[in-house]
Amino acid sequence: MTEKSPGHDETFRKAMDSAYRILSIRSRSEEELRQKLRQKGFQDIIVNEIISSLKEKGYVNDADFALNFSRYLLRTRRYGLIRIAEELRKKGVPPGKVQDAVHVVRREIDEREMVVASLEGKLRGNDISRMDEKGKKRVVQYLYRKGFPLNTIYEVLKSRKWNGVNDDREGD
Asked: Which of 30, 58, 148, 154 has the lowest CB atom count within 10 Å?
């Protein structure tokens, strides 16, 4: 057992108060919380103790965070599964937990319907048949950036009789 330095208890209390304030704003991944506490100047040994304590109490749980954040991105931002996985990785969620969350969310949605909803939101009632080739490409790029697979994007566009969309994918 390592000996605690003088002032350890006071530093621990300050770090724990800081962690609670950070978590009161919104839920965080373990890595996000770790980075925030380090930015505030707390040493790794204190940060590790705080994280461990908060995990035991259930305040930090990457699996719950990943699932809730995935649902949020899906419902409010209308992101596709590819983009959701990317956003989770940016938050420091471990790959296994990213996969698990995306797998659960995949069962909760119809990705084609999500593409349609995003497409309708983007077009805002504009007639897609009047778009030039450049405009159509922009729409495809928009949907791709939202995290939808190109094959699903082109399926939806073709099913909506959006003629003139060139499926110029290479090896997809």
From this structure: 58
